[in-house]
Design a protein that fits this description.
By secondary structure, this protein is of the alpha+beta class. It is built from 5 helices and 4 strands. A 4-stranded antiparallel sheet has the order 2-3-1-4, sandwiched between helices.
Length: 182
């Protein structure tokens, strides 16, 4: 019996899949790229909501960076993780409601869209960890990633070995296709 070619594994599939449940890089931008989270208390709000909601949905955030008009994060799912789309929808809804309440702008549209990339190659995963950690440097906000308060770089450098930090930070990011024209 001849095997069905549609049921055979893709011959170029990655050998080292990161997890069965997936690791994703997410990028989202505000409506019309407006700097709605420009103040420190607004950035605190967005960062807090991201970490709280991800935890409540059983997503492990491995790198994050939040800015006045966008954010990036890398997250790992597990069998208990809720749907990623639902987590992001809740993050956007709750952060928008709270921001609009603080700004007295009820009903204002805050978020425009989000982009997700499932990471299946280890080098791609490591490069994106570096990209997220270094994003504040890329945008000219700080000269060293750990100086940016609303990013995981300082935490990462504190909790992992210097060799691991050096390894992650050595991965090139210039060829990554990440929507980041903010």
């Amino acid at each position: 019996m001849t095997p069905d070619p549609l049921k055979l594994p893709w011959p170029h599939a990655p050998i080292h899949k990161l997890t069965e449940h997936g690791v994703y890089m997410i990028t989202a931008g505000t409506f019309k790229k407006l700097p709605l989270f420009a103040r420190p208390d607004r950035l605190d709000l967005l960062e807090r909501k991201l970490l709280e909601i991800a935890s409540q949905h059983a997503w492990q955030i491995e790198a994050w960076a939040v800015f006045a008009n966008h954010y990036h994060f890398v997250a790992r799912g597990c069998p208990a993780s809720a749907a990623l789309r639902g987590m992001i929808s809740r993050l956007h809804a709750e952060s928008a409601r709270e921001l609009n309440r603080l700004d007295l702008k009820e009903g204002r549209r805050v978020w425009f869209n989000f982009w997700d990339t499932k990471l299946t190659y280890e080098k791609s995963y490591l490069a994106r960890l570096n990209y997220v950690h270094q994003n504040a440097v890329k945008h000219g906000l700080v000269s060293a990633a750990h100086q940016y308060r609303w990013c995981s770089a300082a935490w990462f450098e504190r909790v992992t070995t210097p060799a691991r930090v050096q390894t992650i930070y050595s991965f090139k990011t210039d060829r990554l296709e990440v929507p980041d024209d903010f």
